[in-house]
Amino acid sequence: MNTIAQIFVALAGVFHLAVFAMESLLFMKPSTYKRFLIPNEAEATISKPWAFNQGFYNLFLALGAIGGLIAGGDKGHAISLFACACMAGAGIVLIASDRRMARSAALQAVPPILALVLAAVL
Predict the structure, then answer these.
(1) What does the DSSP 8-state code read for residue 38?
(2) Helix residue spans in the chain (DSSP H)
(3) Is the distance from CB of 122 to CB of 5 less than 8 angstroms?
(4) Phi, psi (rounded to 5 degrees) for 93
(5) Quick one: residue 107, left, alpha or beta (phi over 0 = left, psi -120 to 50 = alpha)?
């Protein structure tokens, strides 16, 4: 995999680590749960188990992307690109499910899509 694609894989991984922190560690902060369109603490409390679980999905995707880069070689890069494909798919599902999440979906999906495209064409 070329260096430019690797940079976008790393960016996608770091972004998903940040989302893990927001969903699994910082979710009950008003500034955090409001990013997820949850209007108040009562609804955040109800959503907390979902967010905690979802955060770990993001952690595992990040570890796949970054771990694959660290492992290197064809197998490591395949793992990174698979993680990116999953990230891209999740971003597409997010925008399809709620147009208000367009910015978040773009942040989630654009770096891994760029990694996939650049890995394929360069």
Answers:
(1) -
(2) 3-20, 30-33, 41-71, 73-97, 102-121
(3) yes
(4) -65, -40
(5) alpha
**In whole angstroms, what is the distance from residue 61 CA to residue 53 CA?**
13
Q: Residue 73 is which amino acid? A: G
Per-residue pLDDT of the chain (122 residues), as tens digits, is: 999 999 999 999 999 999 999 999 999 999 999 999 999 999 999 999 999 999 999 999 999 999 999 999 999 999 999 999 999 999 999 999 999 999 999 999 999 999 999 999 99
- Where do we find the tokens 């008003």? 30
What pLDDT was estimated at residue 12?
A: 98
Q: Which two tokens stand for residue 109?
A: 């999906």
Length of the chain (residues): 122
Distance, in Å, from the CA atom of 98 to the CA atom of 87, rounded to the nearest integer, reads 17
- Amino acid residing at 85: A
| Burial environment of residue 11 by CB neighbours within 10 A (0 to 12, 13 to 18, 19 or more) | middle
